[in-house]
Amino acid sequence: MSDANPLEYLQHLSQPEPTRQLGVPKVKVLGLGGGGSNAVNRMIELGVMGVEFIAANTDQQALASSLAPTRIQLGPRVTRGLGAGGDPKIGASAAMESSREIAAVLAGADMVFITAGMGGGTGTGAAPIAAEIAREVGAVVVAVVTMPFSFEMSKRSQSALEGVRQIQPHTHTLITVPNDRLLQVVPRDLSLEIAFRIADDVLRQGVQGIAELITRPGLINVDFAHVREIMTRGGGAYMAIGLGKGEEKAPAAIKQALHHPLLEIDGLDSASGVLVHFTGGEDLTLFEVGEAVNELRNVTSPDIDIILGATTDPAMTGRAQVILIFTGVGGCPVAAAQGFEEVAIASTSQVQNNQMEDLDLPTFLRRRTAVGSRS
Questions:
Q1: Which one of 72, 76, 155, 275 counts the least CB within 10 Å of its CB?
Q2: Average pLDDT, whole number, for the chain?
């Protein structure tokens, strides 16, 4: 434990930023495919506030069961509402066909979360398209995606890696959640259904942690402009979650998060920023939050930029949860891969035929169509 005064870092944070009173950032969450839609459903069920929820899927039947108030059936002509059949190329084609609808629902957003499970057809293929559209509308784009369990087919794992390569250049922050690491913290007799629910819930916690940090008034409020600056630095990102109990619940939560299976502790010294979101009961004190921040500073670069927020929940009395999002980790972003989108352009052109000239298409799709017509 550091000997530093736990309150020293927090003194200038005890009052809300004046700019927060002028308006709340508009945050939208787009769940793609089965995994992304499940994460959105989970957030809605738990009453996550201050964000707009959107579900998009190629499977019309699955989409009908979504709790999201805004729903987009992707590629009705390409898939006829029957899903992508596990083919990311079809998922990309479907997203291209529905690009106007995606752009319309994302318009006006300050931050867009894209959540999906990598390896399938819809989420893997549509996520890069949706991320590019989100950047076109001027939003900070944060993708939180899961990677397949090792017991799933190798083809699914290969598709997931390709999907990550394609979405990386279009996001400001990309958080990948390797499902296999979740198995390190769950019982061996856990059912398959529960394992997948846990994976979906990690997506939910990552999105909720960041969204509530900037939209929900709390004990310690943050400035969205500061969050935006940290989230747009590029590089990789890590996410970790911790829970603490008792008198030193906040420091205990930090310690547990720093040993989270999703976190690569050796890479933290290269992180340029970290979002720290505490949730606790009314017994959560500023002093113990300060102690927790000192715990974090002991294992990170002295130059790291920490954005701290804390909110209260009466149900959390005696406990504290922390969500850590480390940004700007490591070197260069993953290079863009070729594959899904080229096929998507061709398929969309075939489906829409001569109607393309009459559509008010997003800028990125107009550029792609022009390139495709010259090839």
A1: 155
A2: 82
CA-nearest of 96, 151, 141, 142 to 119 is 151
Tokens (6 digits) for 92: 């990309």
CB 298 within 8 A of CB 19: no
**CA distances in angstroms from 235 to 171, 281, 331, listed in the order given:** 10, 34, 6
Domain ranges of the chain: 11-16+236-329, 20-215
Helices (H), 240-321: 249-258, 286-297
The residues pairing with 324 across neighbouring beta strands, listed in sequence order, are 240, 276
Two structure tokens written together for 301: 């670069």
What CA–CA distance (Å, rounded) separates 230 from 340? 30
What backbone torsions phi and psi does residue 325 show, to the nearest 5 degrees? -125, 105
Residue whose entry in the numeric block shows the structure tokens 């089965």: 34
Phi, psi of 87 (to 5 degrees): -105, 110
Q: Is the pLDDT of residue 332 over 50?
A: no
Query: Domain 20-215 is of which CATH architecture?
Result: 3-Layer(aba) Sandwich (3.40)
Rounded-to-10 torsion of CA 11, 20, 140, 149: 60
Answer whether CATH 1.20.140.10 is correct for domain 11-16+236-329: no
Q: Is the full-model pTM beyond 0.90?
A: no
Q: Give Cα 138 to chain centroid, integer Å.
A: 17
Q: Tell me: pLDDT of 163 over 90.
A: yes
- d(CA 157, CA 149) in angstroms, rounded, equals 8
Alpha helix ranges (H) inside 137-189: 154-167, 179-182
359 alpha-carbon distance from chain centroid: 30
24 phi and psi angles, rounded to 5 deg: -100, 135
Tell me: pLDDT of 367 over 70: no
Q: Average pLDDT for residues 3-32, to the nearest whole number?
A: 60
**Cα Rg of the chain, angstroms:** 21
- Mean pLDDT along residues 227-245: 88
- Confidence category of residue 115, pLDDT binned at 50, 70, 90: very high
Q: Is 20-215 in the same CATH topology as 11-16+236-329? A: no
